[in-house]
Design brief:
Blueprint: E1 3-14, E2 17-29, E3 34-38, H1 45-52, E4 60-65, E5 68-69, H2 75-85, E6 86-89, H3 101-111, H4 116-129, H5 145-157, E7 163-167, H6 175-190, E8 194-198, H7 202-205, E9 210-215, E10 218-219
Parallel strand pairs: 3-8, 3-9, 6-7, 7-8
Antiparallel strand pairs: 1-2, 1-4, 4-5, 9-10
Helix pairs in contact: 3-4, 3-5
């Protein structure tokens, strides 16, 4: 088992009332799964991904990741855990505009204290794999949406995460680019990377081995 959510509930207080974003979410994810999370806007999909990715805390419930009780961990241990095991791909890319493509991809390795020579080799490998060697000295604003997304994915994968979380990864791409990204995910999954993607696209959802439907913060059974 890679992770388990039990009774995960999240709300925000509005005018003294609780507005529930996630309600009593129970979910077990095995290593090597490819899960698609679907549901209308505002159903809690991104929040669920952020809780799994340890970017957000639930108000209630328990979260186990690789047998660690995430909800009991201090912020520092939590950060160390997700930097080591989790890669995140966002719809809005979240690249750092002041850094070149090369530096953006290298960033996760710097957090992991990987030696300079080893970092160089790993970044070169990623640039090569995504056919973006020629773009390495450019800044994100000089790239097309598709290229920025590739850089975002390269950055998410460079530290060899166990779990890849993707929030609408093809949302800003044309259909050909989107298809290439999904094929890439399918290949990664074949090679053992667990993937959880949030998507609006029925077609993209079918790449997953399991589809989870969210409605008003509940998993629909």
């Amino acid at each position: 088992m890679l992770l388990e959510l039990k009774g995960i509930t999240k709300w925000i207080e509005q005018g003294g009332r609780r507005n529930f974003i996630l309600k009593d979410i129970n979910l077990v994810v095995e290593k090597g799964e490819f899960i698609s999370v679907m549901g209308p806007s505002g159903s809690g999909k991104s929040t669920l991904l952020n809780v799994i990715g340890m970017l957000d805390d639930a108000n209630e419930g328990s979260y186990q990741f690789l047998h660690e009780n995430v909800h009991m961990l201090k912020e520092k241990s939590k950060t160390a855990l997700y930097k080591r095991y989790i890669g995140f791909v966002f719809q809005a890319y979240h690249l750092i505009d002041e850094l070149t493509v090369y530096e953006n991809i290298e960033t996760p390795l710097i957090y992991q204290d990987i030696k300079g020579s080893e970092r160089k080799a790993m970044v070169a490998d990623m640039l090569d794999r995504f056919n973006i060697v020629g773009k390495k000295d450019l800044f994100p604003t000089q790239l097309s949406g598709g290229q920025q997304q590739l850089v975002g994915i390269a950055r998410a994968l460079i530290a060899k995460p166990e779990l890849l979380l993707a929030d609408e990864p093809t949302g800003n791409l044309n259909s050909k680019q989107g298809e290439e990204i999904m094929e890439l995910f399918a290949e990664l999954n074949k090679n053992g990377v667990t993937i959880i993607q949030v998507t609006h696209s029925e077609k993209n959802a079918t790449y997953g081995s399991r589809i989870i439907n969210l409605l008003d913060g509940h998993i629909q059974h």
